[in-house]
Write a structure and sequence with these properties.
Blueprint lengths: L2 H9 L12 E6 L4 E9 L5 E12 L2 E12 L4 E6 L12 E2 L2 H30 L12
Protein name: U6 snRNA-associated Sm-like protein LSm1
Family: Belongs to the snRNP Sm proteins family.
Subunit structure: Component of the heptameric LSM1-LSM7 complex that forms a seven-membered ring structure with a donut shape.
Length: 141
């Protein structure tokens, strides 16, 4: 096999994550959670190990972080994985940081409202357009 084809195959597998190891990453999960942490390891199924992980929640121009430390993520739950540019991280407007317990009830309400809206939309699509209602939480991605 030519080396060009080998490079293409390596890029389309979890092997393409090798350059992300030991870098700060943002991971968005199927349930909507947003995790920031340092990618320490992964496997052929794109299961990830994050170190110094924080979960970040948002509401009305504010955000809060909950520290989780070492975090194992099953690959099938990853929607998005991206490197955080440490040079630009502080320049991106995040809103004001508040305590996690203060923001959590508002965030949970936002999540529940979004879930109800999605269920209502799915019901309309099922009744009026014949779409299937199968799937689970987060399958909208």
């Amino acid at each position: 096999m030519s080396s060009g084809l080998e490079e293409l195959i390596a890029f389309t597998t979890s092997g393409s994550l090798v350059d992300c190891v030991d870098r700060k990453m943002l991971v968005v999960l199927r349930d909507g959670r947003k995790l920031h942490g340092v990618l320490r390891s992964y496997d052929q199924f794109a299961n990830l190990v994050l170190e110094d992980t924080v979960e970040r929640i948002y509401h009305a121009g504010a955000y809060a972080e909950n520290w989780h430390g070492l975090f194992l993520i099953r690959g099938e739950n990853v929607v998005l994985l991206g490197e955080i540019d440490l040079d630009l991280e502080d320049e991106v407007p995040q809103g004001r940081q508040v305590d996690y317990p203060a923001l959590e009830p508002y965030h949970k309400k936002d999540v529940e409202t979004k879930k109800q809206r999605e269920e209502h939309k799915a019901q309309i699509l099922y009744e009026q357009r014949g779409f299937c209602k199968e799937g689970g939480e987060g399958d909208g991605y």
